[in-house]
Amino acid sequence: MDHLTTNPANSQPLTPLTFLERAAIVYGDTHSILYHRTSFTWSQTHRRCLQLASSLSSLGLGRGNIISVLSPNTPPMYELHFAVPMCGAILNNLNLRLDHNTLSVLLRHSESKLVFVHSHSLALILRALASFPKTTPRPSLVLIADDAVAPHLHPPVIDTYEGLLKKGNPCFNWARPNSEWDPITLNYTSGTTSSPKGVMHSHRTAFIMSVDSLIDWSVPKQPVYLWTLPMFHSNGWSFPWAIAAAGGTNVCACKTNAPTIYRLIQSHNITHMCAAPVVLNMLFTYNRAEPLKNPVHVLTGGSPPPATILARAEELGFRVSHGYGMTETLGVIVSCAWKREWDRLPATERARLRARQGVRTVAMTEMDVVDPASGVSVKRDGVTSGEVVVRGACVMLGYLKDLEGTRKCIRNNGWLYTGDVGVMHGDGYLEIKDRSKDVIISGGENLSSVEVEAVLYAHPAVNEAAVVARPDEFWGETPCAFVMLREGLLTRPSEKEVLEFCRERLPHFMVPKTVVFKEALPKTSTGKIQKHVLRMEAQALGSLSPPLPSEDKYYIFKTGIYKVGRKGCDVIITKDKGVSRVHAEIVVNTMNPLNPLPNERSDLSSSIHIRDCSKYGTFISKNVGPKKKIHELPNKETALEDGDLVSFGTGTATYKFCHVPLVFFICSSNKVDQSLEEKISSIGGSITNTLGEECTHVLVDQLMPLKKDLVEAVVAKKSCVLKTWLEFFAEKNISTEIPSCHSYIPIVSAEGESIKIADPRMREDCLKEYTFVLESEHLYKFGDQLKSLLEVAGAKVVSFEDFCSNSHGSDYGEDNRVVCVIPKGPACKSNLFNKLSSLLTVNEMDVIYAAFSGQLDLSILKSPCILVSSSCDTDETVVADSDTEVETATSAHSNEAFSNGNNLKYEKTEELYDDSDTLDKRKHERVEASSEDVSTRLHDIQCAKTEASLDGASVRSHVTSFRNDNDGIKVKKDKVDDYESGNSDIVYSQHLIVRDTNIRTSMSTAPNSSVPNFKRFRKGQTQSGNSFDNLVPFAKYPYKDSDNGNDDMAELVKEEKRRKKMEAVADDLFNNEKARKRGTVGSRGTEMRRTTP
Questions:
Q1: Is residue 42 a contact partner of residue 19, using CB atoms and an 8 Å limit?
Q2: In the sheet where 960-964 sits, what is the strand order?
Q3: pTM beyond cutoff 0.90
Q4: SS3 helix, strand, coil % of the chain, rounded to 5?
C-alpha cells in the first residue's frame, strides 16, 4: 500500500476562489450583489473579478504583495475578496473606525503596495500617508466612488475602481495558489500602534472555514444575505466566500441603522445576516411593533445577548444564534448548537443555555479548557475555570513579522491559546467567563486596555492607571479607567478633562466612558495591579444606560413631517410628564435659505408649520404678542418663524425655533454643477461669491491645486471641507448635531506636495512666538496674502527693511524665533537675506504648509552656518561638534559664560583702529577665540562694511570686533564680500564653514543649557581642512580626486587663485608701514560689546 499516497490529482490546493467559478456556472443568471440601484449576477461578478485581477497583474502586483482596502460594505469591497487573491496578492482589509495615525502604522507595517479607498475615507487615508517618513515608500491609491462620474484624479490616486476594472482582461488566467498554505488575507487584530498584530490566513483555512460556516449555520442554497457585519471584521467571518459557494445574494449596505436594516429586510426578503451585539440592541429596541413577514436568521458573537433582548428578537421574528471566534481563527469555531428538547424549557432557562458559547463546529479538530500552567484539562463541572485552547484548520499561519508573538500564541504542544477564560459544562458545552485581561469588546471592536492605559499615563497629573471593561447596555462593554493622581497637585483634573485628553490621542471608540479617581489602586504583594478587583468595582457601578437623544438642540436638514413626543418620535421629550407619546408635528414644506443681508428676515411663514396632536396642548410665543394655544387655532396649527418659542405639555419643555445659516463659498478647479447647487438648496443652504462674515463653510475639491482664493479662505478663518461632507450632510433628515467635518478635511496640492487644511482652531497660534522676516511682496508667489496668512497663524511679520532698521531686529525676540522666509524661485532672485546669515530660514511653500496644517515641523527651519576660523600657518582647525571628546581649553569657560546669558546685554560702540600690532595679531587671535565668541557670531553679529581707498584700488573688508569684559579677549576677522553667491554657506577667504544639523536644538534651549563642545582636529597633510566632508573651503565645492582634469573645476581653481592673490595684496597693504598710515584715515569697524548690567 506504499503507492497509496498523495499525487498531483488528489493534492490540488484548496482555495475559496473556486467558489466563484462554480457560482458563475450554476447560478450565473441570478443576483450576486444588490446595492442601491446597482445589481450584478454571478456571471457578471465572475467576469468583473477576472478583469480587476488582470489589471492588478498588469500593475506588477502578484504573489507576496499586499493590497489594502478601506471601504464600507460596497460591491467593490466584496469583489476584492476574490480579485486580489486571483492575481496572487494578499488582501488586507482596514478598519474604517481607525484614525489616520493608526492606519499609517498598519500600512507601513504591512508594506502595502496599493490601497483601494472609498471616497468618504480619502481624506483619512491621505492624512495617514502624509505621516509616512520621507524615506518610506507610499502605496498608490485607487478611488472607490459610488457615483458613476469619474472625479478629477491627482497623485497618489492613480485611477478609479471602475476605471481600473475596465482596463482588465475578462479572460484572464488567474493565479492559482502554488500551495493551499499560501497566504490569502492579512487582518489586524486591534490596530495597536505599539505592536500591531497582523494575522495571516491561508487559502486552505479560508476554504474550510467558509464551508464550515454554511454547515454549522444550516444555510440553504441561494440565501439572501444582508451585510450588516463589516467585511473588515475578520473578512466578514468568511461569509464573502461562503455566500458564493451557496449561490446567495449579497445585499450591501453602508449604513447600519435600524430603519435602513428593516427597510432592506422587507424590500429584499432577507433570510440571513450577521451582527455584533450593538446592532442587535439597536434593532430590538427600535420602535417597531409588527413582526417580520418571514423569519430572519441572525448570527452574533461577542457577549451573549441578554434574555430580554432574545425574547424581544423572537417576538419580532428573528432567530438568533450565538457563536465564538477570533481573528486568529477567521470566523466562528464554537457555536451554541441548539437541541430540540430545549424548546420546551422556560424562557429563563432557554436564555441561560443560549448564553453559553457551545461546542466546536464540524470542521474544528479540538477545543478544550486547560490549566494554563500545566496544560491539563480542567474538570467539566461548569465551575473550574481555565484557558480556552483550540486546534484545527481554522488556526492562522501566524503574525506578520512577529515570530515571538506567534510562538506565545501557538505553543509547541499543538494548541492555539486564545487568552480567554472559560469553564466546560458536564454536557461538553463551553461557557466563556472572562476574556483576556488586556482586551475589551465594545460594539464588536476589540480594543487594548494596555494602549488606553499608555495614553492615561502620558497625562502629567496621572500617577497610576488601569483600564477594565464596564457593562454597557448599548455597546456591550466600554472602557472604565481607574486613576490615581500624583501627589502635590495644585489643580486636580476633572473627569471631563481626562476624557478630553484621551479623545485627542485615541480613536473615539477607545476613549473611556467612565473615569474613577482613587487614592490607591489595589495591588498584589509583588506590586502588580489587581485588575480582577477593579473589574468587580466596574461591575458594581452598574451598566451604562443607552444614550438618550439630546433635548437641547435638534437640527432639521430636509423637508418632511417630524414628530415630537415622549416615545418613538423624531424629537424626544422626557423632562415633562405632560407630553403625549406623539404630542405635535413639525411640517417642513420647503428649506428656505437664510437671507444673508443684515437685519433681514427670511420668509419662513409659508414653509414651516407646527401642528398640535395632544390632549395637553402646545403653546407658542412670538417675538411680538402674547403666548398662543396652538390647539385652539384653526386646524390646530400655525406657522413657525425665526425666534419663536414653543412649549409642549405643561410648559417645562420649551424650545426656541431658529434658522441656522449655512452659506457656502465654493473653491473648485471645476465649474460648479447644478447637482451641487441642488444639494445645497435642499438643506436650506445658499452659495456666496465672497468670503465675508455671512460665509460659514468653504467647499473644496480633494487634491485641487492651491489657489489664491483658498489662501484667502484660510486667512478669513473659514472652515474648509470636502464636497463629500455636503453629500453626507444632505443624507440626514434630523439630528442632534451638525455632522462633524473631522473626516472631511480637504487636502490640496502645491508644488507636488500635499497640504492638509486643518480646522481654524488648529491653525490659530500654530506659529505663535515666531517672527518672520519678508522681502518685497512681489517676490512671493502669494504676495501680500503671505503676510496675512502668517499673522492669522499667530506669527509676527516684519519687512526686511524694518527689521534691519530696528537695531537689527532686537524688538522681535530671540534669534532662534526669528525666521527669514525665502521666496520661491532661483536663489539669485534676491540676496538681501545674505545680510542676515545668522538667522533661521524657511522656504515660502514650507511655511505656507505649516500655516495650513496648523503644525510647525521644525525640520523645515534651516539652521544658519557656524563660522570657524582657520589659518594657513597653523595645523589645527577648531570645529563645532556635539560629541563628548577632548574639548579645547576655552570650552569650559565659554559654557560658564553662556550659562549667565540672561544677565548680558549688547552695547554698540565705534572704534578706530590704527595700531599695527593689533592688525598683526589677528590670525593668532582667531584660533584663540572661545566658543562663546562663535556662539555670539551665530546669534548676534551684524558685520559693518568699511571701504578704504588704497593707491586707487578699492578693497572691501568686513571688520568685526568682539569684546568680553570678563576676560578681555578681543577677536577680529576679515571677510571678503560674498557677492558672487546667494548661498550663505559659501564664504571665501581663509574661513571654513560648518553646518551644524543640531544648531536648532541648541538655539531653542533655555539660557542655562550648555553650548556645543569645540574640538580640535589635526589636518595632517591635507590642505585647509579638505579632508572633512562638512567643511567647505574657499570655493563652492570640496576638492575631489575625481575632479582632476575637469574643466569646470579647473576654472574654479583659477578663480580661487586670483582671489587668494587679491587677499595677499590686501594683507600686504594693511601690514606694511604705508598701509598703516593710510589706514588711520578711516579704517573704522563696528563693535558689539556685551556688558553686564
A1: no
A2: 905-912, 1084-1091, 960-964, 970-973
A3: no
A4: 30, 25, 45
Rounded to the nearest angstrom, the gap between the alpha carbon of residue 414 and the centroid of all alpha carbons in its chain is: 40
**195 in the same domain as 63:** yes
Rounded to whole angstroms, the Cα distance separating 410 from 357 reads 22
Q: Domain range for residue 532?
A: 437-547
Tally DSSP H helices, then E strands, for the chain.
31, 57
C-alpha cell at 245: 459557494
Q: 581 falls in which pLDDT band (50, 70, 90)?
A: confident
Arithmetic mean of pLDDT, 453-469 = 87
Length of the chain: 1093
pLDDT of residue 1069: 60
Computed over every residue of the chain, the mean pLDDT equals 76
Q: How far apart are CA 141 and CA 139, in angstroms?
A: 7
Structural domains in the chain (count): 6
Most confident of 114-123, 702-711, 736-745: 114-123
C-alpha cell of residue 141:
491609491
Q: Which residue, among 168, 159, 61, has the nearest Cα to 117 in the 3D structure?
A: 159
- Residues contacting residue 243 through CB under 8 Å, at least 6 positions apart: 223, 225, 249, 250
575 and 686: one domain? no
Is residue 726 included in any domain, yes or no?
Answer: yes
Residue 965 lies in a domain: no
Q: Identify the pLDDT of residue 234.
A: 92
Residue 409 lies in a domain: yes
List the CATH number of the domain containing 384: 2.30.38.10
Q: What percent of the chain has pLDDT over 90?
A: 29
According to the model, what pLDDT value does residue 99 have? 84
Task: Please name the amino acid found at residue 786.
Answer: L
In this structure, the answer to whether residues 145 and 239 fall within a common structural domain is: yes
- Residue 386, classed as helix, strand or coil, is strand
Q: Do 70 and 121 form a contact (C-beta atoms < 8 A)?
A: yes
We report the CATH number of the domain holding residue 250 as 3.40.50.12780
Same domain, 750 and 770: no
Q: Which residues contact 209 (CB under 8 A, 6 or more apart)?
A: 238, 329, 330, 331, 363, 393, 394
Alpha-carbon radius of gyration of the chain: 37
Residues 476 and 617 in one domain: no
Q: What percent of the chain has pLDDT over 70?
A: 71
pLDDT in tens, 799-851: 888 888 875 445 555 555 889 998 876 554 456 677 777 788 888 888 888 88
Residue type, 595: N
- Show which of 718, 733, 757 is a domain's final residue: 757
Q: How far apart are CA 679 and CA 912, in angstroms?
A: 77
pLDDT (mean) for 529-552: 76
**Joined grid coordinates for residue 284:** 430590538
| Residue 27 CA from chain centroid, whole number | 43
CATH number of the domain encompassing residue 798:
3.40.30
Euclidean distance between CA atoms 998 and 1030, whole angstroms? 13
Identify residue 1011 by its one-letter amino acid code: V
Residue whose cell numbers read 482596502? 69
- In a domain, residue 147? The reply is yes
In this structure, what DSSP letter does residue 136 have?
Answer: S
Position 150 confidence tier, pLDDT thresholds 50, 70, 90: low
Amino acid type, 224: V
Is pLDDT at 32 greater than 90 in this prediction? yes
Residue 120 and residue 146 in one domain: yes
3 state DSSP class of 966: coil
CA 420, 421, 425, 428 torsion-angle sign: positive
If one counts every other C-beta atom within 10 angstroms of the C-beta of residue 61, the result is 19
Domain boundary among 617, 634, 657: 657
pLDDT tens string 39-82:
999 999 999 999 999 999 999 999 999 999 999 999 999 999 99
My answer on whether 782 and 821 are in the same domain is yes
CATH label of the domain that carries residue 517: 3.30.300.30
Q: How far apart are CA 545 and CA 194, in angstroms?
A: 32
Regarding whether 427 and 459 lie in a shared domain, the answer is: no
